[in-house]
DNA sequence: GCTCTACTAGAGTGATCGTTCTAGTCATTG
DNA sequence: CAATGACTAGAACGATCACTCTAGTAGAGC
């Protein structure tokens, strides 16, 4: 069985994906994790803020690793992109349209009210954009173009989650993925043309 | 002076843009609108849900009109897109990075917990996508391509809000706007080539 | 000038929020 | 075996939540 700290983390992650940051109470968290309140404040003395920051950081890192994994497995950058959006769409369908990513929701909820959490979400997005930028640069795409592409990719992914969840249909995510492939193809053309 | 109903609507809209749906209390709303609780329930007997749905619907319509306005004023579809993202970026900077759009946040907060609000957000996104699709079709872009482009545009916009607010910097929004212009140019090329 | 409806006004409801606190269990270490 | 630190356990706190309720004001229509 998972340790109490990990149970708290995964329970919070899932609750955030369903109800967001403000919509999730610590009572729900302790109930879902089968942990007493005392344990929560033992592992996260800073309370909800510290717990949330831990969820943002760890799940941000998990997604970055997942991205690298998919990128490694793909035949080329364009396929990596489609694969990633396809994977996200499948997760969405298989989980009754729970948000695949808690971070985007939290980011918008706390950006104006909680500076440390805002910075936490920013660090995660930046790490994703940096990871994707490196990949594209490795394919010969110039730094500027690679960065623009990576930023757009992350934005389109987060935006795709919004649309797909509102629609209760993963189609927008796949549609957006197709556009992202077009964008990557376009960028790769200028490289191979050299 | 604005009527009480309108004051409630605009106050709620702004509070949602700062703190989201679950982060906004009705006490904050009545205080900001300088309206008593009784008036809130007089105009919105359904309480917070009905008020929220009204905010979603009215501000969704406002944004659709704004899009049409900018599209009308622009020289061509590509410029319309850049203008729209530029306008969003400017609003963000001038409002201390308050969310330009309350709907995306609400959509993710309530998608799994409030069916009528989820449908409300879906209707708004669909109306935006339909409006953009019509524009692109009017330029000779085939329906399928136009729909894909419009969906990607809305997703990229919402995702751009997430990144820009997390970063407290409008740059990601402008960067994403540039990619969207590339995408529109790409689609227009196949049209004029005919 | 009376009546009726629209609206204002805010105190009060029970429920739930994040957090604190005290008490206790249990394995490890001297 | 005594003692220490890590962790469990949940009752209790004041604050705040969405919402209800009663009372009162004001303007329109007759």
Key features of this structure:
DNA-binding, about 190 residues, homodimer, mainly alpha, Tetracycline Repressor, domain 2
Would you mind describing this structure in some detail?
The structure is a homodimer of 194-residue chains. Chain A has one domain (53-192): Tetracycline Repressor, domain 2, CATH 1.10.357. Chain A is mostly helical and 194 residues long. In chain A, helix 1 crosses helix 4, helix 4 packs parallel to helix 7 and helix 8 packs antiparallel against helix 9 (171-192). Helices cover 80% and strands 0% of the residues of chain A. The interface between A and B is large, with 51 and 51 residues. The first copy, chain A, binds a DNA duplex (30 and 30 nucleotides) through helix 3.
* Structural category of chain A: mainly alpha
The overall number of domains of chain A is 1
β-sheet strand percentage of chain A: under 5%
CATH class of chain A: Mainly Alpha
Number of strands of chain A: 0
Distance between the termini of chain A: 55 Å
Element order, helices and strands of chain A?
HHHHHHHHH
Shape of chain A: elongated
Task: Please name the CATH topology of chain A.
Answer: Tetracycline Repressor, domain 2
Count, helices of chain A: 9
The oligomeric status of these chains comes to homodimer
> CATH H-level name of chain A... which superfamily?
Tetracycline Repressor, domain 2
Largest sheet of chain A: none
Mean of residue pLDDT values of chain A: 97
Please give the CATH architecture of chain A. Answer: Orthogonal Bundle
Q: Name the poorly predicted regions of chain A.
A: none
Helix content of chain A: over 70%
Cα radius of gyration of chain A in angstroms: 18 Å
Which protein chains make the most extensive interface, counting residues with beta carbons within 8 Å of the other chain's beta carbons? A-B, 51 and 51 residues
């Amino acid at each position: 069985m998972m340790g109490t700290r990990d149970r708290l983390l995964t329970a919070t992650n899932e609750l955030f994906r369903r109800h967001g940051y403000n919509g999730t109470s610590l009572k729900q968290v302790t109930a879902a994790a089968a942990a007493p309140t005392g344990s929560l404040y033992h592992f996260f003395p800073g309370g909800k803020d510290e717990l949330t920051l831990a969820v943002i950081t760890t799940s941000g890192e998990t997604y970055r690793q997942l991205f690298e994994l998919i990128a490694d497995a793909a035949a080329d950058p364009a396929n990596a992109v489609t694969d990633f959006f396809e994977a996200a769409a499948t997760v969405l369908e298989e989980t009754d349209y729970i948000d695949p990513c808690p971070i985007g929701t939290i980011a918008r909820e706390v950006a104006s009210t909680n500076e440390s959490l805002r910075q936490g979400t920013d660090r995660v997005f930046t790490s994703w954009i940096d990871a994707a930028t490196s990949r594209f640069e490795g394919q010969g795409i110039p730094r500027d173009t690679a960065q623009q592409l990576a930023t757009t990719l992350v934005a389109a992914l987060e935006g795709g989650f919004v649309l797909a969840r509102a629609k209760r249909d993963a189609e927008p995510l796949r549609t957006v993925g197709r556009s992202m492939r077009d964008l990557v193809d376009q960028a790769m053309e200028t490289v191979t043309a050299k």
